[in-house]
Amino acid sequence: MSDGVLRSESQKNGGKMASMLMHSIRNCPANSSWALQFAARSLSTSSHLQAQVQTKSKKTLAKPGVKNIVLVDGVRTTPFLMSGTTYSDLMPHDLARAALQGLLTRTSLPKDAVDYIVYGTVIQEVKTSNVAREAALGAGFSDKIPSHTVTMACISSNQAMTTAAGLIAGGQCDAVVAGGVEFMSDVPIRHSRKMRKTMLSLNKAKTLGQRLSLLGSIRLSHLSPELPAVAEFSTAETMGHSADRLAAAFGVTRLEQDEFAIRSHTLAKKAQDEGLLSDVISFKVPGRDTVSQDNGIRPSSMAQMAKLKAAFIKPHGTVTAANSSFLTDGASAVLIMSEEKALAMGYKPKAYLRDFVYVSQDPKDQLLLGPTYGTPKALERSGLTMDDIDVFEFHEAFAGQIMANLKAMDSDWFAQTYMGKKSKVGAPPMEKFNTWGGSLSLGHPFGATGCRLAMTVAHRLQKEGGQYGLLAACAAGGQGHAMVIEAYPQ
């Protein structure tokens, strides 16, 4: 994309972006050099995956007088599927119920041993607005267990997990199930507002004359439906458009984005073939086949990727359908307990949930930079540095978004100008970063991804012998989340 086109896009979307754009491009490494380094580092992950488990000697993050909160176990059941495929005839609570049942089966958890259930979701089915409650009842949990649903865009199940941690830390609960679900195969489509007002008035009309008058006021334009859009309410801009502008601001090329997308799919396929995605549990879809693995993992070639046209900013954009996460159906669930309760019940936890932060920025210019803002704050709270982290799991909304975050994290100028920091936090080394694939390949059910990230961190720490993991994600509204997870002693 030429500087002229970039400046034109910036002018349309505010003056701050233009300043950010030019400074970022000048202060980021040269594209060609960065791409070569990135490709080389990406190829080094295979040896890392095969590393022998080693015992680390780092100190624990346990704090005197502070209750230890543990991640006992978790599942993705259902496997994540591309929307419009095998789950298309179900409802969101069907997927959430299956996840809860899978968690019960895996942990042998008594159904009355849970104190609370909290679920995340984004696009709500109006018939089951509190999907946590409907899924819990369907899964056979006691009707005496309170349940509620949270929404925070792509970090909804992150919020569910930290809500659970808060309930336990505050002494309200000892055992909480958290999870998330998203069902993009069937989203609520509404009548236009004028049509809705007419229909509500019809319902209240008392005479035939009133009803006929209201019916006569209906115009053809009133029948146009309102479809939910993955767009910011405050800016009316789609997330894909924001990702395209962000990639341009940081000089992330189409080549780099396609390379990263291929890396994600290739590593996900390798992890799937090697049985590393152990949080996935088979699900028998009523009237259809049993689903046992994610179906969006599709390794490709650079030649095939290059054939796709820009999806948002046409024709000059660099974000395509292939280097973006796809619309996904899926659900997840995790069991979170106080360590004392878990050990009393005979469990061997997977990991400790340690410090976490939520961040928020201007959704117009910095919609997708949550990991950049959240990472240093989470590390500061834990007293850790980037070098202490053994496992990084970042949500991959778009390849351009991920790589823009990596460049922002590695930029002293960005840290000083936008974050009030003296120096950069540094970019994660690629040999530690999303080495089992990510949202680009595994899929991204908006409300369920956070739990997948947490379980992947826990499993990778076990497999690779690490002690500290960091998960981070961006979300609509310019928000983000980061959490430090510590391996449980083996």
Task: Furnish the topology, listing elements before pairings.
Layout: H1 3-12, H2 15-27, H3 31-43, H4 45-49, E1 69-75, E2 81-82, H5 92-107, E3 116-120, H6 131-139, E4 147-150, H7 156-169, E5 175-182, H8 193-204, H9 208-216, H10 239-249, H11 254-273, E6 283-284, E7 290-291, H12 302-306, E8 328-338, H13 339-344, E9 351-360, H14 370-382, E10 391-394, H15 399-409, H16 412-418, H17 439-442, H18 449-464, E11 468-475, E12 479-487
Parallel strand pairs: 3-4, 3-5, 10-11
Antiparallel strand pairs: 1-8, 1-9, 2-8, 5-8, 6-7, 9-12, 11-12
Helix pairs in contact: 1-2, 3-11, 5-6, 8-9, 10-15, 14-15
Domain Thiolase N-terminal: 69-340
Pathway: Lipid metabolism; fatty acid beta-oxidation
Catalytic activity: tetradecanoyl-CoA + acetyl-CoA = 3-oxohexadecanoyl-CoA + CoA; decanoyl-CoA + acetyl-CoA = 3-oxododecanoyl-CoA + CoA; an acyl-CoA + acetyl-CoA = a 3-oxoacyl-CoA + CoA; butanoyl-CoA + acetyl-CoA = 3-oxohexanoyl-CoA + CoA
Task: Describe, in plain words, how this protein is organized in 3D.
This protein has 490 residues and is an alpha+beta fold. The protein has helices spanning 3-12, 15-27, 31-43, 45-49, 92-107, 131-139, 156-169, 193-204, 208-216, 239-249, 254-273, 302-306, 339-344, 370-382, 399-409, 412-418, 439-442, 449-464; strands spanning 69-75, 81-82, 116-120, 147-150, 175-182, 283-284, 290-291, 328-338, 351-360, 391-394, 468-475, 479-487. The chain has a domain at 3-49 and 239-277 and 353-487: 3-Layer(aba) Sandwich (Peroxisomal Thiolase, Chain A, domain 1). The strands form 2 sheets. Strands 1, 2, 3, 4, 5, 8, 9, 10, 11 and 12 form a 10-stranded mixed sheet that branches. A two-stranded antiparallel ribbon has the order 6-7. Helix 3 runs parallel beside helix 11 (254-273) and helix 8 (193-204) packs antiparallel against helix 9.
